[in-house]
Amino acid sequence: MTRLGCLANDFWLALAYFSRLPVPSGTVYSPEAQQRAIGYFSLIGWLLGGIQALALWGACQIWPQPVAVLLAMVLGLLLTGALHEDGLSDMCDGLGGGLDPASKLAIMKDSRLGTYGALALVTSLLLKAGLLVSLAAPWWALLLAQPLSRVLAGSLMFVLPYVRVESAKAGAVVGKSSRWQRLGLWAGGALALWLLPWPLALACILLLGLLFVWLVRFFTRHLGGYTGDCLGGAQQLAELLIYLLLATQLPGGVTWPM
Hints:
Layout (H helix, E strand, L loop, with lengths): L2 H16 L12 H5 L5 H20 L4 H16 L2 H15 L3 H9 L5 H20 L3 H22 L19 H16 L3 H25 L5 H19 L2 E2 L3 E2 L3
Antiparallel strand pairs: 1-2
Helix pairs in contact: 3-4, 3-8, 3-9, 4-7, 5-6, 5-7, 5-11, 7-11, 8-9, 8-10, 8-11, 10-11
Enzyme class: transferase
Cofactor: Mg(2+)
InterPro entries: CobS (IPR003805)
């Protein structure tokens, strides 16, 4: 397989891993290629965010904005199979209900939805809908938040150990990260920041940086590392933080120009 063919194959594997979108039937799986998937995490965010943003913009031409936002959110759930939302609910169930790392990991692996997970999921969806409805151009928020939130979640893999290797989906991409994986992941986030006004980009870097540091300390204290559910939960928290930032009113009632 040529170098270009290998890159394309890696992209299709990443797309199959992070979404429910169809990939070519000739895509070849290998553990090494699957480990490289994290380098495409922000690129997948651009693709999914672009589809959602386009659908939201189109829906706003037909229906009131609250209806269009809800339709775009449903589309997002279909595109990913609710992968990250499932991670958020499992993470909250485990970290909220477990007494020690072993019990927290066992609860997170349980497919049943508990009280903490249900509350987190409902709160997250309601907050996300309310914030997007409040924005003048919510399609831009969707487009930019998807890659940026995935940069934060993927970066956790570079600084924390994976604490559950047995047959978990995230275990397929566990391994020593390369320079190109990091550059690939961060390049997608850099592009999103470049498209923002510089004060907004600076505020975004600051807030996401604080969230990243807090998550590293939080996951280390409770689990000693991360799991796939932690990555999904981190992505959802980062996405909400970006929407909160964009919806923030500045002194004098001025909002961010988005």
